[in-house]
Amino acid sequence: MDNSSGVGVLDKAxxxxxxxxxxxxxxxxxxxxxxxARPTAHRLAVALEHHRMVARDMQGRFILGPxxxxxxxxxxxxxxxxxxxxxxxxxxxxxxxxxxxxxRQGDMRICVAAAERLSGLRDTVPVGSTLTMxxxxxxxxxxxxxxxxxxxxxxxxxxxxxxALSGVRRRxxxxxLGEREPGVASVSAPVRGPSNRVVAAVSVSGPIERxxxxxxxxxxxxxxxxxxxxxxxxxxxx
Length: 238
What we know:
Elements (H helix, E strand, L loop, with lengths): L7 H13 L6 H8 L3 H13 L3 E3 L5 E3 L1 H30 L2 E8 L2 E8 L14 E3 L4 H8 L3 H8 L6 H10 L2 E4 L6 E9 L5 E10 H4 L3 H23 L1
Antiparallel strand pairs: 1-2, 3-4, 3-8, 4-5, 6-7, 7-8
Helix pairs in contact: 1-3, 4-9, 5-7
GO molecular function, one term: DNA-binding transcription factor activity
Protein name: IclR family transcriptional regulator
Keywords: DNA-binding, Transcription, Transcription regulation
């Protein structure tokens, strides 16, 4: 089968990326896997490295770069946002509280979708709001399944502990009482992408007077169900 697109340099770059899909490769390994001439393979790998589509490991071997994960996350976010509206609206209607969807962005989390409570006291988090990763139930969710080193760094100065996050992983949901803002309680659960990685957190939030000191008892199941619906949508699209 001819995989040529007619644009030679792109076809060769695609060969390099495909060769790295199976793991790290030396320059000699790239040459063997792609059939490209050594100078061509080197030139393309270095050019792709400039664009962060290729990187190097500790041994100096070529590996797939972080830009690919960023692009994949952006594509996943589009699918996530396309599904989020009705799921958050349903969650708001079931719980009677404002519902939000958060994604991690560096050392912060950003509200990428929301369904506001229609009347009365509500915890309003406008779409686009950037909040701390140091407090709140959705921050706990976005942190709990991180790699150990990033988890350890993230816990410095946080309002929650490693023990608390261990409980979050065991239960599959998190709650907070006045962590992010005095008088506000919330419950969150993880949304997982096709590789089972946590890509977002679904939350409901409102006054402690309404959600009580045990908001998880009231709303954990509804939040878990909403997160599962979003996870299923991502898996079908993945």
